[in-house]
Design brief:
alpha+beta; 423 residues; single chain
């Protein structure tokens, strides 16, 4: 009985070791397959003979006469933010696993990574006939699952069907090119090359700087309608132009920088105001597609509107009128008494109310307005310093020079030179 028991235990141990070996072989085989495919697709030259030999040697189930090449481009959401190297590798492996599980339910396929945010899927339908619409349906399902379970936004490009191995490089190039159209309003998350090949090439450059002064004025005066007009114009422009991904994301980053500057100029924290639209620079530079960019622009507009409305609730009509009066007369010799009279208050009471609502004294507020206007004139005009001094309300330009340096840290001439050098 003891011998029989020993044989049973030995048999179980053998089976366990065999299962371990099979799992290791399976894991190593998957690693070898992905390494082979990555090397093949990233090499300067594609060898059909070597590719076919590799398919057979590594037991990759693909029909050489019916292959689709898909490119999966990962967006920004929850991707690599605050992750260490081990966590990034784990997330990348999870993406590959999900891709193969979803795609291979109806197809033979293999997924591998070619770049930090780019994954390639090769597949052949298990059953014929299969149209590209079936492939698109599988891709939509995959993108949805990646978003739902991994928090990853993505777009996919689909090249033409390769009817022989020689056509695979062309199908791959088409899929990669299709993904570049992801910021066109005509495209969705799944982009077929056949749908975009007749569209104009994506434009490589875009800037929101023409809207800067309009945004500055709208934010400073807390004009909701003007902010909406400005951001809506940018959205329409982005939709109509048809930008390359790099240009679209750079435009978003530029807009974000301008808004942050406007907020910080008033000693406020952007993250306290942009509660829904706050994105890191990395997230903005790696948005997935047009829909994600449009969604961010909408949230940015909503955040700014909410901030201005909250400010209006805090700030009384008296303060609004006082600020308006100051804006219209900052280039004159206006005293606290004159401003107080314009809103029907005694100077002492107005001084108390103004500081309570604005957070600074009337004198400091007027100085800030004048210096900011002076900075703007120094940046955008060729007026002499003494002329600008008079234009912002300081008759004594020597006093203006000293005051400007005290507040800005540079003389007016040095400030102008620094902005010219920066350009």
């Amino acid at each position: 009985l003891a011998g029989f028991r020993h044989e049973i235990l030995q048999e179980k141990e053998t089976q366990f070791r065999q299962a371990q070996i099979e799992q290791e072989v399976k894991t190593n085989l998957s690693t070898l397959r992905r390494a082979f495919l990555k090397e093949t697709f990233c090499s300067a030259e594609f060898s059909p003979e070597r590719f076919k030999e590799g398919l057979e040697r590594l037991e990759i189930k693909l029909n050489p006469n019916h292959i689709y090449c898909l490119v999966l481009q990962i967006g920004s959401s929850y991707w690599m933010e605050n992750m260490n190297a081990e966590e990034i590798n784990s997330r990348q492996s999870a993406i590959i696993t999900v891709c193969e599980e979803v795609i291979c339910s109806n197809n033979f396929g293999c997924c591998f990574q070619t770049k930090e945010r780019e994954f390639v899927i090769l597949l052949s339908p298990k059953k014929d006939p299969v149209t590209v619409n079936h492939i698109v349906s599988d891709c939509r399902n995959l993108v949805q699952i990646l978003q739902q379970y991994l928090g990853v936004t993505a777009v996919m490009g689909i090249g033409s069907r390769a009817s022989c191995i020689d056509q695979i490089p062309c199908a791959y190039a088409e899929a990669r090119e299709a993904v570049k159209y992801r910021f066109f309003k005509e495209t969705e998350q799944i982009i077929q090359w056949s749908q975009v090949q007749s569209l104009p090439s994506p434009k490589a450059a875009y800037s929101v700087l023409p809207y800067r002064s309009q945004l500055e004025k709208a934010f400073f005066y807390r004009q909701v309608s003007e902010i909406c007009i400005c951001l809506d114009s940018i959205s329409r422009e982005l939709a109509e132009i048809g930008l390359a991904p790099e240009a679209a994301c750079s435009g978003a980053l530029e807009l974000c920088s301008i808004i942050h500057e406007l907020i910080e100029r008033e000693q406020l924290q952007p993250e306290d105001i942009l509660t829904a639209s706050h994105h890191s620079y990395g997230e903005l530079l790696h948005m997935a597609n047009w829909d994600e960019l449009l969604n961010w622009l909408q949230k940015l507009k909503e955040d700014l509107i909410a901030f201005i409305q909250a400010e209006e609730e805090k700030e009384s009509w008296i303060i609004s009128e006082a600020k308006r009066f100051i804006q219209e007369h900052y280039d004159e010799e206006i005293s606290l008494t004159e401003v107080a009279n314009s809103v029907g208050l005694t100077p002492s009471y107005f001084s108390t109310v103004f500081k309570e609502h604005v957070g600074t004294t009337y004198s400091d507020y007027l100085t800030t307005i004048r210096i900011e206007k002076a900075k703007q004139l120094l940046r955008s005009t060729a007026y002499r310093v003494y002329e600008i001094s008079h234009m912002v309300g300081y008759e004594n330009h020597y006093y203006f020079n000293r005051l400007f340096k005290k507040i800005v840290g540079l003389t007016p001439l040095d400030y102008r030179k620094s902005k010219i050098d920066a350009i």
